[in-house]
């Protein structure tokens, strides 16, 4: 999703902006731009496509001395990816960058056009800068003009504005989209996430919804609806190692290999000798809770589906899973005995955040599972459990899915402990399996080369079915999603028992079926389902600890003592398969077309 960077100070601004935008590339974008006011002169540069195009445009420009500056990577929402639609957007003497959506922009635009304002772009963002200048032309007061502008905006926004009318100030506002302020002596930074300012700022403040203000002379003046407010800074991490490729070809590849390590981090202090413990959760969180509803999107939705089996099987508590973008419009029946769980890698997923707000308005207790502390969803929730996956730069999520699923597995046992629905023997089995999970995520020397060799057989045909039963149905959905995201090949996840209820009509030699065949869960049932496909000449890739003679290709897995160990090992195989097919097709694995990392619009 769109990324913001801003800087006020005496250092060379172009490189600070470009380096910051480089760190935001993982969010997905189709154009980029920067604007700088220096020596009372406003300069701006924009380019469509990758950041290297913007670097080329600015190669002969250097900023020296004190100035203010803003930059942006855009993921198109209103208007096509063109240079005119790229941020920063310009008025007569001001520039603005903005993340989110201004819901009443058409109304504002018509009002401004009636006043004679000519718009250059198709975006909602351009209304902000023209509205500011309209106000300023009336009152000749930049700060009042900015406040009047923000007051008229409906929707989600994180915005920075600079103007020749006040050339040493950056104006900012935040509502619904993430933004933070970084500090280092007299330098002030703005960004939509930590990454661009790590190594530059030493302290940080995470803006809350409804906060706005301005930065001038190395100081930040912060306001909300009640007037000026004081704020406390916190230390900013300085280690960028997790955000680098470390010799891997792609961030996604690195993140697949990291899963064993980060799983240890996820479990640390939580998987104890004889129980699961979350010190961040209030012991009373589950009091009088007799139902769980989980809301999520995309990959997080698949981890939620997996959890629904675990909550009902282990904790003996009803669990429903909702797609956040649908939940908001179905007029859901929400009962106060329901714990509302939201899952999001970024903590900024717009649909999930709005579903959470709806649940809170209905009086439900809320718990978020997230990878980013201080994110919007974490701050909005009554309680939060962090997945501790570290920075995930690949747009197609891997380690976030693994760690979300582990947190939910632990949470199912935690609830079972609280409600006394798990006996000591089952608890011991679950804890032992958890301790082995990091080993199940290790990639041995033979599996990756095998997936590289196999990938050449799966480049054509009319599509893929990933099939599984029980816990492995959500994994089939996730395997299909990974493949379609980065290879652009058609893929579906399906419950294996449902194939004969329609989809088997597609079966022929050009239909590729990836069969998840765990030994520990319904093996004979799924074997029968796969045999039905083989009888209709489908091409089958079997993933199982048990050899399957009818399969065209077979990947042998190691763990067969517990379904979740098989789950995680097979998850890695499907991730590597998607990766290697995509590489062989020549695609950009980390930044697949049309996708964004943090989806902050509906």
Automatic annotation (TrEMBL):
Subcellular localization, as worded in the UniProt entry: Cytoplasm
Domain Glutamine amidotransferase type-2: 2-218
UniProt-listed Enzyme Commission number(s): 2.6.1.16
A molecular-function term among this protein's GO annotations: carbohydrate derivative binding
PANTHER family on file: GLUCOSAMINE--FRUCTOSE-6-PHOSPHATE AMINOTRANSFERASE, ISOMERIZING, GLUTAMINE--FRUCTOSE-6-PHOSPHATE TRANSAMINASE (ISOMERIZING)
UniProt record, GO biological process: carbohydrate metabolic process; fructose 6-phosphate metabolic process; protein N-linked glycosylation; UDP-N-acetylglucosamine metabolic process
Protein name per the record: Glutamine--fructose-6-phosphate aminotransferase [isomerizing]
Gene that encodes it: glmS
Catalytic activity: D-fructose 6-phosphate + L-glutamine = D-glucosamine 6-phosphate + L-glutamate
Organism for this UniProt entry: uncultured Sulfurovum sp
Keywords: Aminotransferase, Cytoplasm, Glutamine amidotransferase, Repeat, Transferase
Keyword presence, DNA damage: no
Chief site of localization: cytoplasm
């Amino acid at each position: 999703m769109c990324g913001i960077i801003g800087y006020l100070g005496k250092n060379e601004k172009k490189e600070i902006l470009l380096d910051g935008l480089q760190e935001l590339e993982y969010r997905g974008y189709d154009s980029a731009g920067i604007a700088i006011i220096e020596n009372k002169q406003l300069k701006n540069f924009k380019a469509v496509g990758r950041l290297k195009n913007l670097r080329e445009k600015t190669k002969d420009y250097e900023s020296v001395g004190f100035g203010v500056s803003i930059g942006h990577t855009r993921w198109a929402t209103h208007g096509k990816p063109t240079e005119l639609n790229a941020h920063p957007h310009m008025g007569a003497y001001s520039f603005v960058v903005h993340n989110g959506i201004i819901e009443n922009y058409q109304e504002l635009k018509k009002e401004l056009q009636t006043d004679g304002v000519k718009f250059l772009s198709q975006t909602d963002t351009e209304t902000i800068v023209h509205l500011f200048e309209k106000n300023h032309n009336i009152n000749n007061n930049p700060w009042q003009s900015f406040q009047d502008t923000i007051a008229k905006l409906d929707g989600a926004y994180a915005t920075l504005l600079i103007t020749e009318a006040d050339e040493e100030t950056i104006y900012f506002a935040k509502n619904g989209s993430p933004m933070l302020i970084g500090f280092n002596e007299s330098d002030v930074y703005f960004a939509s996430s930590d990454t661009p300012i790590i190594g530059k700022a030493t302290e940080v403040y995470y803006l809350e919804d409804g906060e706005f203000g301005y930065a001038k002379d190395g100081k930040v003046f912060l306001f909300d609806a009640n007037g000026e407010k004081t704020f406390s800074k916190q230390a900013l991490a300085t280690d960028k190692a997790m955000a680098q490729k470390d010799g891997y070809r792609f961030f996604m590849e690195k993140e697949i290999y990291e899963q064993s390590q980060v799983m240890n981090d996820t479990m640390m202090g939580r998987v104890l000798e004889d129980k699961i413990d979350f010190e961040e959760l209030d012991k009373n969180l589950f009091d009088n809770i007799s139902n769980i509803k989980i809301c999520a999107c995309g990959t997080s939705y698949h981890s939620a589906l997996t959890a629904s089996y675990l909550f009902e099987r282990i904790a003996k508590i009803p669990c429903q899973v909702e797609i956040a973008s649908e939940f908001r419009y179905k007029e859901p029946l929400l009962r106060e005995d329901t714990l509302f769980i939201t899952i999001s890698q970024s903590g900024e997923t717009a649909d999930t955040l709005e579903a959470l707000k709806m649940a809170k308005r209905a009086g439900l207790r809320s718990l978020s599972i997230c990878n980013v502390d201080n994110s919007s969803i974490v701050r909005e929730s009554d309680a939060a459990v962090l997945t501790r996956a570290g920075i995930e730069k690949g747009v197609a999520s891997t380690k976030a899915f693994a760690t979300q699923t582990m947190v939910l597995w632990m949470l199912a046992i935690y609830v079972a402990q609280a409600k006394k629905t798990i006996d000591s023997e089952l608890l011991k089995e679950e804890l032992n399996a958890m301790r082995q999970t990091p080993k199940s995520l290790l990639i041995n020397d033979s599996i990756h080369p095998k997936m590289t060799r196999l990938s050449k057989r799966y480049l054509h045909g009319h599509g893929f079915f990933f099939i599984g039963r029980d816990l492995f149905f959500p994994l089939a959905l996730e395997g299909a999603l990974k493949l379609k995201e980065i290879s652009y090949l058609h893929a579906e996840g399906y419950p294996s028992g449902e194939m004969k209820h329609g989809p088997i009509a597609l079966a022929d030699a050009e239909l590729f079926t990836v069969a998840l065949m765990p030994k520990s869960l319904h093996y004979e049932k799924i074997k029968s389902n796969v045999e039905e496909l083989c009888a209709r000449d489908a091409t089958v890739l079997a993933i199982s600890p048990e050899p399957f003679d009818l399969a065209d290709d077979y990947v042998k897995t190691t763990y067969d003592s517990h379904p979740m160990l098989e789950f995680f090992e097979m998850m890695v195989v499907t991730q590597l398969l998607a990766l290697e097919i995509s590489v062989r097709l020549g695609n950009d694995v980390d930044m697949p077309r049309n996708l964004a990392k943090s989806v902050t619009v509906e």
